[in-house]
Fold:
Amino acid sequence: MKRLLFILAFSLAFQNATAQLFTKEKVANNPDPKDEQFLSWGYFIGFNQYDFKFNYEEDLKDILVDNTFGFHLGLVGDMRINNFLNLRFEPGVFFTTRNLQYDESYFNGMEFNDSDLLREVKSTYVHLPLLLKASTKRINNFKPFIVGGVSVALNLSSNENNPDDNSAGQFRMRKNTYFYELGFGIDFYLLHFKFTPSIRGVFAINDEIVRDSDPNSPWTGNIAKMQTRGVFINFTFQ
Structure:
């Protein structure tokens, strides 16, 4: 009888512990979160890597793009639509450098030196995206989401109005670039604030290159279209 009572008591205790371990909700951090407010604010910092997509007039060797990691920072304005949708405005400043390596075939029949085969493209963008964020239901202290939208970027280093072109060593781009953006991330609810790591791809819609005065320029003559694409890694604090 004692053995039977012991087994019964142990079984009840085990069931109770198991139920608490697997069914009991964790304590929710940030019990009055900012995502319950109609308007909330924050900031972000992160890293970026920009690239170029080229379309060519003739079938020559590709222009190679040497990508480097850049840095960015900015502000977040968030408007709550409902429990699952938010409209966001995330203005920021983005710094990046891309190096273009031309093949010698672009200079067929022309005199050139090694410096003519390389163009360094430094860009400082004021990036202005309008995004729609679609989230899942909050699960304990985290909430996954996807995000997408459109943006415009003002390139402060474009050289668009510079009278010098590549013949004088100046690679020129359009000042305004228009993008569409897609990404995903996770909101983590910490004790006093919300921390959000996310990754986003950006894709230019318009042609960005400013062509040289010479229509047969080895630097721009074979480019039918040049468009920026990039990846952003953001760390947001709200």
